[in-house]
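Z., the sequence and structure:
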Amino acid sequence: MSAGLSISCVIPAYNEAPRIRRVLEAVLCHPAIHEVIVVDDGSSDGTADVVATLPSVRLIRQAQNGGKSAAVARGIAAAAGSYVMLLDSDLLGLTGLHVSELLDPVRRGRADVAISLRRNAPMVWRMIGLDYISGERVLPRNWLMEGLDDLPHFGLEVHMNRLLIRNNARIAVVEWPDVASPYKHAKLGSWAAGLRADAAMLADMFRVVSPLEAGGQIWSMRRMRVRDISGGHASL
């Protein structure tokens, strides 16, 4: 296990009052997590009130909704750990064991970065064995200190990919067959709203990278993937 490794868990949240408590329960009692930071991104549904009932969570409130990239940047700036675990606040089925599985390759020094592959990741990502825009990652905090303030709402993951490729990171892909992220249409109440949200996310991504560069990121990250991340069973 890597010596001197401390981990801050940063969770951006926007209108996730029905779901965020279960995500927090999975990380709050985990012995490898040194601090949990939630950045409430101007929620209007009481998300911050839910988080505030858990005194061991550090809650940062954004007065206005600025998007995921800005929320994560705020959380990373406040984090004290040498590594950051990023988690989406709407995950379904997350447990402490899943947290251990994502941390384990980095803690054991078998990878520099760990990225989740959820049960309901798009079929093409599951076929190639990599969700290159996964929101659940473990990576060195100092790799994330560049360029976060200039990103559009949903440009974070492709920006991180650039940094991982630049650092020639050893990437562990951790399969989470029991964890899912709600589909946007289910959260927003209609297929039309979900499609608009997906289109906005893609537009933000392609403001940061071109479609050609996005394809290059996938190729590079698959090449950088560590195939053998075993070395003991993950545990709390």
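The longest helix spans residues 191-208. The chain has a mean pLDDT of 90.

Let me know what you think.
H.
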